[in-house]
Amino acid sequence: MSDFAHRELPAVKKTAFRVGLACNFGIDARAAEAAFERGVNLVYWTTFRTGGVRPAVKAALNRDRERMILVTGTSIGWFGFNVRNAAESMLRKLETEYIDVFLIHWVGVTGALTDATLDRLVELKASGKVRAIGISIHDRERAGRLALESPLDLFMLRYNAAHPGAERDVFPHLARRKPSVLAYTATSWRRLLSKPSGWDGPVMTAGDCYRFCLSSPHVDVVLCGPKNVAELQQNLDAVARGPLSAEEDGWMRRFGAAVHG
């Protein structure tokens, strides 16, 4: 399936709804079920602030495992042996046989992509316990180099109207290997939802932020972190409007630049 709302992720051999659900912003099981009913099938799972939603995620994985896409990872990737332990722990917690995408989180901050860590990721993928491997990273120049030459299947990147630097430092390097891109901080931690000093134009909504990300042909999925059903429905309704017009893209970029300061 190929349309604005869906994208094939070759590394996991599944079609993703292009809005993924981040489970650590207060969403409960009822709201998660509403997301799944609307077609959301990619879940970004951490062990922080997700206890209330875990039953819904486990139930979705149990009833429709070959459609659901589970993305998770570890921030303790300084030593290679930690990688397998973290993955196996997550498999037990969610009672599933495999992880679709396993990440080393915050590479260069709390996690490290050493040769040993990368070797363990590759071994983990070969074992079948994970289907794809990736990283989340703020160092865009390093991400660009890794996009060119590494076994990584997915990059989780900061990308929004206030921080569009991936367009320069990462996206041009994707064509060679075609790794997937999972965008996060679409609202720039909600900074894009407020009028900056001196701004007289329209203010972006959360839905605008997600449409901005998804209008890039290089972004496969954007993470959404709703707190309740109402926020979820508003965001998904906005995405259903499709890609940005040239006029919308222009004012959002100007607004993002003003927010960035």
Kindly estimate the percentage of residues that lie in beta strands according to DSSP: 15-25%
The shape is globular
Oligomer: single chain
What series of H and E elements makes up the topology? EEEHEHEHEHEHEHEHEHH
Number of strands: 10
Global structural class: alpha/beta
Rg is 18 Å
By CATH reckoning, the class would read Alpha Beta
The chain-level mean pLDDT equals: 93
Topology:
Layout: E1 6-9, E2 14-17, E3 19-22, H1 29-37, E4 42-44, H2 54-63, E5 69-74, H3 80-94, E6 99-107, H4 115-127, E7 130-137, H5 140-148, E8 154-158, H6 166-169, E9 180-184, H7 206-214, E10 221-224, H8 229-239, H9 246-260
Report on this model:
This protein has 261 residues and is of the alpha/beta class. The chain has one domain (6-260): NADP-dependent oxidoreductase domain (TIM Barrel). It is built from nine helices and ten strands. The chain has an eight-stranded parallel barrel with strand order 3-4-5-6-7-8-9-10, surrounded by five helices. The longest helix has 15 residues, at 80-94. The protein is globular.
Task: Based on the model shown, name its key terms.
single chain; 261 residues; alpha/beta; TIM Barrel; 8-stranded parallel barrel; two-stranded antiparallel sheet; 9 helices; 10 strands; 36% helix; globular
Summarize it.
The protein is α/β, with parallel strands linked by helices and 261 residues long. The chain is 36% helix and 20% strand.
